[in-house]
Design a protein that fits this description.
The structure holds 2 protein chains of 2 kinds. By secondary structure, chain A is an alpha+beta fold. Chain A contains 4 helices and 13 strands. In chain B, strands 5, 6, 9, 10, 11, 12, 13, 14 and 15 form a 9-stranded mixed beta sheet that branches. Chain B has a two-stranded antiparallel sheet with strand order 1-2. The longest helix of chain B is centred in the N-terminal third of the chain and has 23 residues, at about 1-25. Classes of the chains: A alpha+beta, B alpha+beta.
């Protein structure tokens, strides 16, 4: 087989050999994880809790699938929403792992959201859905200068300078104990929160 | 007579030790510290990692020798055409140099890419969907001669990735898992002997550009040994 064909297959169906696509759960299977009450505004990205629509840091795969629906999951999957590439949406270029993380890494991918997990629990959440806003009112579609005004303690730079990948403008910083927030691209295409530093 | 046999055995054992250690000894100091870092960076002095270092080319390799073997196995009529450094269009921003840090006496300097190679992909040489590998040779071992490093140019390291050209104005992005690319490149290079996931390379572990690297570097020998498929024992 020619590599060109491999490439087409690779980009078209990313990581198809390992990932498994799953449909949303039906029925009344309840997840025992404590569930944050979803407020009336479903587009709020709660950086303090690290959650979006009640799902995020600490969530199980079952809970995420139940809320976000169709999923692809796997260790070789890119950590970006379905149909999108990480650098395209402004995902952090080299985020750190949470302390003590070892095996069992998985990327859980959904329409407009993705989670990174170790041993079945999410430690990182990224959202690309249009109109998603943090508690301070900026988010997908905002400019980085607006982000900087709302989060003046954040550092804003460009990742991937000098190499051949697309440069990535971003703002990031700590927003509380064990919470790190990242806004990628300008205007912002994704918001990411993690328990570990994102640069 | 008996003494002579012992002498032969001792000489053979020593030689095999030299051969096996020559393959490994010069990639690490005292078997525990690698001579090179595990990540590439876009600029010297940068703290922002770009790619993992995931390929080790051994057995008295020079970057020209490695390139020659890639040319053989990726050539016309093979899986894909192999494009060499000078064939890659720099103006399209698809072969930018990156930096790796190397350990030398008294320092840890940065070195820019020595050489680029790539599969032509679907775009016949343009910056599009393709495999791209940067090479760094170990010529810096020249600096180690004072430390009695007799073997120079014993190995080359590489960062292999699969890239796509994105058409919404942001340019060029990685588009496949690092470890998947590593396995594919090594297997394309059959009949070279290789060890997938040969050893753990600190700081090549983790997320890079949204794809996870297992932190283990694969070793590809420049010797042809048909059928050898070996999985290393490197753990991270």
């Amino acid at each position: 087989m020619r590599l060109g064909a491999w490439g087409a297959a690779a980009v078209g169906v990313l990581g198809c050999s390992v990932a498994a696509e799953e449909s949303p759960e039906r029925g009344s299977v309840s997840d025992r994880e404590p569930v944050e009450r979803v407020t009336s505004n479903r587009s709020v990205f709660n950086e303090d809790l690290g959650r979006y629509q009640g799902v995020g840091i600490g969530s199980s795969r079952r809970r995420a699938r139940k809320v976000f629906g169709r999923m692809r999951a796997g260790a070789t999957e890119p950590l970006s929403p379905l149909g999108r590439l990480p650098l395209e949406v402004g995902f952090p270029s080299s985020p750190r792992d949470p302390k003590g993380a070892r095996g069992g890494y998985q990327a859980w991918r959904f329409d407009g959201t993705a989670l990174g997990a170790f041993d079945g629990r999410a430690y990182l959440l990224t959202v690309t859905r249009s109109g998603t806003r943090t508690l301070k009112g900026v988010g997908v579609g905002s400019t980085l200068s607006a982000v900087r005004r709302r989060y003046p303690r954040m550092g804003c730079e460009r990742a991937n300078r000098g190499g051949d990948y697309a440069e990535l403008p971003f703002c990031t910083g700590s927003v509380g104990q064990g919470r790190y927030l990242w806004f990628g691209r300008d205007p912002v295409r994704s918001i990411t929160v993690s328990t570990a530093p994102l640069r | 007579m008996f003494r002579r046999w012992w002498l032969v055995i001792v000489v053979l054992a020593s030689l095999s030790g030299i051969v096996s250690s020559a393959a490994h000894a010069h990639s690490k100091i005292n078997s525990h510290r690698w001579y090179f870092g595990g990540s590439t960076f876009g600029e010297a002095g940068s703290k922002s990692k770009v790619d993992p270092v995931n390929m080790f080319f051994g057995s008295a390799a020079t970057k020209d020798e490695v390139d020659g073997h890639f040319d053989d196995h990726w050539g016309p009529g093979k899986p894909d055409e192999w494009l060499e450094d000078q064939d890659l269009p720099g103006g399209l921003k698809c072969k930018g140099d990156q930096f790796v840090r190397f350990r030398v006496p008294g320092g840890f300097p940065w070195r820019a890419t020595d050489f680029h190679g790539a599969g032509a992909g679907r775009s016949q040489g343009r910056c599009f969907n393709r495999y791209h590998i940067r090479f760094w040779g170990d010529a810096f071992h020249e600096a180690q001669t004072a430390a009695n490093h007799s073997a120079r140019q014993a190995w080359v390291i590489g960062g292999a990735h699969y890239e796509a050209n994105f058409r919404d104005g942001i340019g060029h992005v990685p588009a496949l898992d690092w470890d998947v690319v590593e396995s594919r490149v090594v297997k394309i290079m059959r009949p070279h002997a290789y060890r997938l996931r040969w050893r753990c390379l600190p700081h090549s572990f983790g997320l890079y550009q949204g794809y996870r690297s297992d932190g283990r570097i694969s070793r590809l020998s420049m010797n042809h040994s048909a059928g050898v498929i070996d999985y290393g024992v490197g753990k991270c």
